[in-house]
Structure to design on (228 residues):
């Protein structure tokens, strides 16, 4: 149990375009999903917390207009990187938990490369 | 806010030896401390966790200890195997309603045959 999927696994896009990443909890309902970014050989940095049916809470320094998060259902959250630039190239990972305070289970990640 | 420090950054051991990774946290209200293992290019996988009402937890070759007074917790791996080689991250909850996790900087463990 507690399987989280992410799609796509890899994406290459041109600078200035937008990319949408999907995060799904496959066998449980996730009231809370988290989005992280991980640069090579670095730790996971929380970008935002997403709760079903409400606006995402962004961490300090993360532009909410650039990283659009939607959590439309208990099994799906999406992250859209708008007007992507090469510096946005990174490994984006989501996690999901049944409820606040419960274990976070991670998706397989999406490697974004912006040319 | 919460700050989590993790040491060492790299750890090399011989197969069969024990490995210990240590983390300290700053927020005394933190109450949940998971450890994740991440292989190159893969997702972090939960290997063990501990809550603040427990001092120690063990699962086969893996154990975690928590010292709330000193605000530090440690991961212990016994009888290490080459497949234990990976990056290990500790984490601690921030004192918010969403129980956000703050991650340590990671420890690259290399187990040599």
């Amino acid at each position: 149990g507690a399987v989280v999927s992410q799609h796509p696994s890899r994406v290459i896009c041109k600078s200035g375009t937008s990319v949408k990443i999907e995060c799904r909890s496959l066998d449980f309902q996730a009231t809370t999903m988290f989005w992280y970014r991980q640069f090579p050989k670095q730790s996971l940095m929380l970008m935002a917390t997403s709760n079903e049916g409400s606006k995402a809470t962004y961490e300090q320094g993360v532009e909410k207009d650039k990283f659009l998060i939607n959590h439309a259902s208990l099994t799906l959250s999406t992250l859209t990187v708008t007007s992507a630039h090469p510096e946005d190239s990174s490994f984006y990972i989501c996690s999901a938990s049944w409820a606040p305070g419960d274990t976070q289970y991670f998706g397989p990640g999406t490697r974004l490369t912006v040319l | 806010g919460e700050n989590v420090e993790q040491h060492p950054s790299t750890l090399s051991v011989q197969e069969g030896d024990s490995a210990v990774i240590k983390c300290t946290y700053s927020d005394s209200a933190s109450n949940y401390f998971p450890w994740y293992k991440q292989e190159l290019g893969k997702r972090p996988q939960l290997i063990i966790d501990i809550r603040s009402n427990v001092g120690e937890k063990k699962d086969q070759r893996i154990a975690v200890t928590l010292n709330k007074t000193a605000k530090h917790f440690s991961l212990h791996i016994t009888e290490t195997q080459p497949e234990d080689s990976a990056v290990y991250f500790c984490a601690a909850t921030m004192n918010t309603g969403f129980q956000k996790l703050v991650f340590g900087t990671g420890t690259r463990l290399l187990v040599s045959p």
